[in-house]
Amino acid sequence: MNTVSAKLMSVDIDQSSLYEGLKLVSGVIESSQVMQILSFVHMHIESNKIILSASNAEVEIQTTVNLIKPVQEALAITVPCRKLMDILRYANKSSPVVFEIEGAKLHVSIDRSRFTVNMLAADQFPFFVSKGDAGKIEISESELSILLKRTAFAMAFQDVRYFLNGLLMEFNGAELKAVATDGHRLSVNAIDLPASQLEHFRVIIPRKTILEVTRLIGSTDQMLGLSVNTDFIEIEHPKFRLRSNLIDAQYPDYQKLVPKVSDDQALLDTASFRLALNRVNILANEKFRGVRLNFTDDNELIFESNNLDKEVATETIKVLEAPAATSIAFNIAYLSDVLSVIESEKVLMKLSGMETGTVIQEDGAMINSLFVVMPLTL
């Protein structure tokens, strides 16, 4: 297969399909790249299709675009991704795209518009190298989406403990579990899968990868393939294939963040809890975002927040099952993040005092989940 053709070669492509393909893979391309070629998209042209590949050296994604008419000779080129997307963005949408490849130049024709852009050597593109068949788990798109969205919010961001800037994924042969913590809150979610002979694994997936996968997948029942080897994780979707590096580290024992005993517990209406937090957040301290929860003997929960300007907000809701009268404070954002992924109508809080985390669980949950939020000292 040629990487740069010395002769003129013409390729006809459906404009809409090409733009959608570029939009799909461009999410991994970052604005500033150490290697210039990482701002380019690799195009493997063969028969009646183009395989588009983009990478930031940590995550690689591929998708396929069909040609209007097949080519006689296979060819690989690299094209500046953002420039090509801008060309398509402002083009006449009813016209096809015609590529004419001549040496290291790409001529793009759309209706009466003509563009010539520089290409780089396609054989310099840094593809992930496969280490053989690792076997794979089959999981539905909706199951993976739910698992990641219910966990990802608890990942750390730019923490010096770099292993926390990612998501732990474990597979024990029948259950796939996702874990994330930043030291202040913990999210653990698991789904049962059909028994598999695939080797058990425990890997840490980088934050960037989790956010990209979450962006790409939806809530359909179509099946995905998930495989792991010593170097990277791979997700095969009907529309794309994504590979990502793994974080080479030992994830901490997250079970230590889960209180062994709970002094008391409260059962709350999820919608009322969520709305009360939104209201008191209006006047919360902008730095600490603290809220104090005061459980009373009258089966009520009083929310209270204040700020440096001595402004105060309070909200009172009924408690479905009340603990003994007690007071405890939290970061509002941490509680809100948990409630944003909870789908049940009722939520259970297991209180263990100010020194250990508070466990939050759904009442009658459809998925095996556990959330822990550390109290805040106000």
Q: How would you portray this structure in words?
A:
With 378 residues, the protein is α+β, with helices and mostly antiparallel strands. The protein has helices spanning 15-25, 81-89, 141-152, 207-216, 270-280, 332-341, and strands at residues 9-13, 40-46, 49-55, 59-66, 75-80, 97-102, 105-110, 113-118, 137-140, 166-171, 175-181, 185-192, 201-206, 223-228, 232-236, 241-245, 264-269, 290-295, 300-306, 312-318, 326-331, 346-351, 358-362, 368-373. The strands form 4 sheets. The protein has an 8-stranded antiparallel β-sheet.
What keywords describe this structure?
single chain; 378 residues; alpha+beta; 8-stranded antiparallel sheet; 6 helices; 24 strands
> Helical percent range?
10-25%
Q: What Rg is obtained from the alpha carbons, in whole angstroms?
A: 26 Å
Q: Mind summarizing the main beta sheet?
A: 8 strands, antiparallel
Q: What class, by secondary structure content?
A: alpha+beta
What is the chain-wise order of helices and strands?
EHEEEEHEEEEHEEEEHEEEEHEEEEHEEE
How do the helices and strands line up, and which of them pair or pack?
Layout: E1 9-13, H1 15-25, E2 40-46, E3 49-55, E4 59-66, E5 75-80, H2 81-89, E6 97-102, E7 105-110, E8 113-118, E9 137-140, H3 141-152, E10 166-171, E11 175-181, E12 185-192, E13 201-206, H4 207-216, E14 223-228, E15 232-236, E16 241-245, E17 264-269, H5 270-280, E18 290-295, E19 300-306, E20 312-318, E21 326-331, H6 332-341, E22 346-351, E23 358-362, E24 368-373
Helix pairs in contact: 1-2, 3-4, 5-6
